[in-house]
Every structure is written in structure tokens, then in C-alpha cells.
Design goal:
The chain is built from two helices and seven strands; from the N terminus they run E-E-E-E-H-E-H-E-E. It is of the alpha+beta class. The strands form three sheets. A three-stranded mixed sheet has the order 2-1-3, with no helix packed on it. Strands 4-5 form a two-stranded antiparallel sheet. The longest helix is centred in the last third of the chain and has 12 residues.
Length: 110
């Protein structure tokens, strides 16, 4: 079975990178388009065999194996970037760290 060759848009890095995906991990018809640029891909696999679990088979899989699956997301995360953009846009003056995560707040609002 031939893999699907696409491009992953990495907005944070201003890059578009080639990505080759095993065809049997894909479900949506759009996923099979050769050469497309995509923002992300998501898969669910059997944690014991790493075989793909299709959405239509998920209930049967859970009934037989329990929730022994792993969700995989190939994506460019905008979390921190959005926080920083918000701080700049609102001209917020103060930042605090909570457990390694940044929380931005306006000191006038508390």
C-alpha cells in the first residue's frame, strides 16, 4: 500500500514541511489527497500493537480492549503564541507562572 505524501503547515516556524503518512492510518477522503498542504493530522492507535483504530470501529475496540488506545496529534501548537499576542495587543503589564504554564492577566482587573 502506497503512503500519502503531503505537506504540514507549521505556522509558528513559517515553514511547510513534507510529511509521508501510512495510508491505513487515514480516514477522511481529504486525507488521501496527494500533495495537499494540511494544518494537522490526528490518529488513534492500539497502544499494544500501534495499529490504527478507525472511528467506525472505536466502540467495538473499547468493548473488547477497554480504552487501551493512544491519540496522536501532529500539529503546530499556538498556545503560548496566542497568550503572548494577547498580552501585546492588550498591553497587559503583568505575567505570572503557574506550574510551568503562563497566565496573562490585567492587573486592573485583578
Amino acid at each position: 500500500m502506497e503512503p500519502v505524501n503531503q505537506f504540514l503547515v507549521m505556522e509558528l516556524e513559517y515553514e511547510t514541511l513534507p510529511i509521508t503518512l501510512p495510508r491505513n492510518y487515514l480516514e477522511d477522503m481529504w486525507d488521501f489527497n496527494e500533495g495537499y498542504s494540511v494544518p494537522s493530522h490526528a490518529f488513534r492507535v492500539d497502544i499494544d500493537t500501534f495499529e490504527p483504530i478507525r472511528s467506525r470501529d472505536l466502540k467495538a475496540f473499547f468493548d473488547e480492549h477497554g480504552q487501551r488506545s493512544l491519540d496522536i496529534l501532529i500539529d503546530d501548537n499556538w498556545g503560548l503564541r496566542k497568550v503572548l499576542d494577547t498580552a501585546i495587543r492588550w498591553d497587559l503589564q503583568s505575567y505570572e507562572m503557574f506550574g510551568g504554564l503562563t497566565e496573562v492577566y490585567d492587573p486592573e482587573l485583578g
